[in-house]
Specification:
The protein is of the alpha/beta class. The protein has 2 domains: 4-101 and 298-329, NAD(P)-binding Rossmann-like Domain (Rossmann fold); 105-290, NAD(P)-binding Rossmann-like Domain (Rossmann fold). Helices cover 35% and strands 16% of the residues. It contains 12 helices and 12 strands. The chain has helices at residues 19-28, 42-49, 65-69, 89-94, 104-123, 126-134, 161-171, 188-193, 202-208, 228-232, 251-260, 299-317, and strands at residues 4-10, 29-35, 54-57, 76-79, 98-100, 154-157, 177-180, 197-199, 211-214, 238-242, 263-268, 288-290. It has a 7-stranded parallel sheet with strand order 8-7-6-9-10-11-12, sandwiched between helices. Strands 2-1-3-4-5 form a 5-stranded parallel sheet. Strand 10 (238-242), helix 11 (251-260) and strand 11 form a beta-alpha-beta unit. The longest helix has 20 residues, at 104-123. The radius of gyration is 21 Å and the shape is globular. The two termini are 31 Å apart. It binds nicotinamide-adenine-dinucleotide (NAD) and 4-phospho-D-erythronate. Residues 117-295 form the D-isomer specific 2-hydroxyacid dehydrogenase NAD-binding domain. Belongs to the D-isomer specific 2-hydroxyacid dehydrogenase family. It is an enzyme of class 1 (oxidoreductase). This is 4-phosphoerythronate dehydrogenase. It holds the Pfam family 2-Hacid_dh.
Length: 330
């Protein structure tokens, strides 16, 4: 029997596979870590990974059709995450490669809580205020006036696993929660329990909300769904938080809206290009708060993600059904 070869692939620092999970993987086969350029894809990526039958994949790099055309013997891509926009699922299926993602509940709380954390920190200008305090400028404190959440209008774009939790957290503040989603992934049970959640068209949500959270999946037709036209329809002084995917937003249009004051602030954990170039304007404006795609990085969540990758590998090699296998749903 040929030995299993497992490639753990990332393109930035990689601390999220716990030691016990790594050891479990080593019982199943040879395990190697690959730190690759985020832009590498296609044939070049396949050349690096050829000979591996299992890949544990981070949010970058992208696994394109050209990658699958040039990759021999690959059986499984186990996404260390939920978002699958980095993998061409159709091409994977055509080449007989299975693709799995993390079960919803593993990441739901971590990502929803991170979105609220960053939105509130942005609105109260916590990072800039702490920085000024560290520098000894206590007298600047009058500069750091924010807004309250209680009783405001909240919007959630994309009401699935994570958006549903964001909506629940918003509801605790006591205002209205408006939701836009053409096909909400939240269950009938969720809607029956949360009767306060009101579904409205996108334009109504944009026009009415003080705080808007983006939690949609990134499909082809969602690229730049929040563009200059959409931003013109918002309430002046709205705050946005995007812990979903950077490409849901036209970043240039968002920056223009922040500069003009139409948007009071933008918090994001996911950017169209990652790692974010150091000269990106969002990184140098106190009305923006950008974190390095760390929403899932709680102990509980990372542990669950690692466990899921190990169980995918075990299921594959023992011929058991895989959990949340996207290729079987096409
Ligand atoms: N920042 C992170 O670390 C991190 C971690 C996990 C997930 N994510 C991202 O969070 C997002 C949500 O994940 P999830 O598990 O809740 O997914 P999900 O599939 O459960 O929910 C996504 C929802 O978005 C909706 N949607 C798609 N296009 C839409 C549109 N144009 N307008 C309104 N709604 C739309 C879908 O109908 C679905 O209900 C994804 O983009 C995922 O990649 C980010
Ligand atoms: O889609 C997700 O779940 C996250 O964006 C992401 O995958 C977090 O984990 P990482 O890719 O950094 O391993």
């Amino acid at each position: 029997m040929t030995e299993n070869k497992i490639a753990v692939v990332n393109s930035s620092s990689f601390g999220q596979i716990f030691k016990e999970h790594w050891e479990e993987l080593e019982k199943i086969g040879q395990v190697d870590r690959f730190m690759v350029d985020p832009d590498i894809s296609g044939k070049d990526l396949a050349e690096k990974l050829n000979g591996y039958n299992i890949i544990i994949a981070s949010v970058t790099p992208n696994f394109t059709e050209e990658f699958f055309d040039n990759m021999d013997g690959l059986q499984l891509i186990s996404r260390h995450g939920i978002g699958y926009n980095s993998v061409d699922i159709k091409a994977a299926k055509e080449h007989g490669v299975k693709v799995t993602i993390v079960p919803p509940l593993v990441e739901r709380n971590a990502v929803a809580e991170a979105a609220l954390t960053n939105l509130m920190a942005l609105v109260r200008q916590a990072p800039a205020a702490a920085e000024r305090e560290r520098e000894g400028h206590y007298s600047d404190r009058a500069h750091f006036m924010g807004h309250e959440f209680s009783g405001k209008q909240f919007g959630v774009i994309g009401c699935g696993n994570i958006g549903g939790r964001v909506a629940e957290l918003f509801h605790f503040f006591g205002g209205d929660v408006l939701i836009t989603d053409p096909h909400p992934a939240t269950s009938d049970e969720w809607w029956a329990k949360n009767t306060w959640a009101k579904r409205v068209p996108l334009n109504e949500l944009l026009a009415k909300c003080d705080y808007i959270s983006l939690n949609a999946s990134l499909d082809d037709d969602d690229y730049h769904m929040i563009d200059a036209e959409a931003l013109k329809k918002t309430k002046k002084g709205v705050y946005f938080v995007n812990h979903a995917r950077g490409a849901l937003i036209d970043e240039q249009a968002m920056m223009d809206a922040v500069k003009s004051g139409q948007v009071a602030g933008y918090a994001a954990d996911a950017m169209e290009v990652e790692p974010v170039p150091g000269d990106h304007p969002f990184l140098h404006d106190d009305h923006c708060l950008i974190t390095p795609h760390t929403s899932a990085y709680t102990y509980e969540c990372l542990h669950g993600m690692g466990e899921k990758c190990v169980s995918d590998v075990k299921n594959l090699v023992s011929g058991k059904p895989l959990v949340r296998e996207l290729t079987s749903q096409l």
